[in-house]
Amino acid sequence: MSARRQDPLRDPGFFADPYPTYDRLRAGCPVQRIPTGSGGHHAYLITGHSEAREAFTDPRLSKDTARFFADRPSNRDLHPAISRTMLTSDPPAHTRHRRVATPLFTTGRVRELRPYITRVVDDLMSTWRPGTRIDLVADLAVPLPVTVVCELLGVPEADRTTLAARSHDLFDATDTGITDAASHHIGTYLTDLVDTARATPGDGPLHSFLRDCEEGGLDRDESVSLAALLLVAGHETTTHFIGNAVLALLRHPEALDRLRRNPDLIPGALDELLRYDSPVSVATFRHSTADLRIGDVEIPAGHPILIAPGAANRDPATFPDPNHLNLDRDAGAHLAFGHGIHRCPGAPLARAEAEIALSALLTRFPDTHLTAPADSLPRHRSRLTRGLTTLPLSLA
Fold first, then answer.
1. Domain residue ranges in the chain
2. Coil, strand, or helix at residue 382?
3. pLDDT 10s digits, 363-392
4. Entry's CDD domains (predicted)?
């Protein structure tokens, strides 16, 4: 098979650095048909910013995966709690789920959580000392959001590390067997957790969450699926957000020095950090339910659609000199959290966690530096998310 006919989103070079691939594809056409996988299947990939925004809000693009695969054979074996979430549904089912999820992450609710997030960061950094080495991913970027979202769901501390590992497995692009097995581990665990809480009166975080689900009209299975989505999406992308942001700053010393000298600028820098290296590279599955036109391209009904926020956020038509990290840029139009009715409801929490973590790192260890070449750092092999598997630092 020629290189032209191969899936561009599965090339090893794409996982290491997707942006040259995105630039090449966008230059050819910001909406184009590409091969996906190895079974002769195709999808439409959207790499332009204006086209991505348009697609995110087009009601003819459905996220109901069950509807798409109803008459198509599939060899996947995902647990229902993972395969049937708010992310894989359309209104009105999506509306009911979102009505429960959104109040959990309002600006006011996140403001109340900030002292707890700060305590978690303090605890994680309590053993760090200048002159020692850490892995920012393992020592901060993973445990911080895992701890926070598990606390919100009432997941016991003893189970959190394993759940985090299985969540990472869900995004493995190399082995669907690993992904499917991880989905069953998480789905079964959360089903048991929810069933135990439903059978045992209490006032803990999980009981509060389940009352919200009941009041919102969600049944038991829907409550489990929402818990699964909050667990996975509530920490996976935030982990990558923190790791990507720290690496971006270390690779741009002027920007890093500016934030070190003026930590109050960190909240305003988050949009540009999200734009520059988005933790969501390609958004989750959509398909066309009718013939439609996006940009200058006609798309027939019944085709998969892949919207790439990672590509859209580097579109020079919207963000001049997009491959440069510019803290003075107005990057508020980035699509790292999506757009439209499926925009990530947990965005305020992710921003708060990243802000508090970056502020603590830069103020306590202002001269921290990499201990390995930036270009050699391994990345997760996933087309959906972009994140580091390790970020070795020397504290100073």
1. 3-394
2. coil
3. 999 999 999 999 999 999 888 999 999 999
4. CYP107-like (cd11029)
What strands, in cross-sheet order, belong to the sheet with 286-288? 31-36, 41-46, 304-307, 286-288, 61-62
CA atoms within 13 A on the CB side of 244: 28
Handedness of CA 215, 216, 220, 226 (dihedral sign): negative
Cα 136 to Cα 124: distance, rounded to the nearest angstrom: 11
Residue 58: which residues within 8 A CB-CB, separation 6 or more? 292, 294
CA distances from 97 to 124, 136, 225 (A): 33, 34, 10
What angle (nearest 5°) sits at the alpha carbon of residue 342, between those of residues 41 and 37?
Answer: 15
Predicted model pTM: 0.94
Query: What one-character-per-residue DSSP string does 358-369 give?
Result: HHHHHHHSTT-E
| Tens of pLDDT, residues 188-219 | 999 999 999 999 988 999 999 999 999 999 99
Arithmetic mean of pLDDT over the chain: 93
Which residues is 306 bridged to in the sheet?
45
What is the rounded CA–CA span in Å between residue 332 and residue 319?
11
Lowest mean pLDDT among 70-79, 232-241, 263-272, 276-285: 70-79
Looking at CATH, the fold of the domain delimited by 3-394 is given as: Cytochrome p450 (1.10.630)
Euclidean distance between CA atoms 246 and 378, whole angstroms:
15
Q: Which residues of 285-323 are buried (b: 16+ CB within 10 A; e: fewer)?
A: bbbbbeebebbeeebeeebbbbbbbbbbbbbeebbeebe
SS3 217: coil
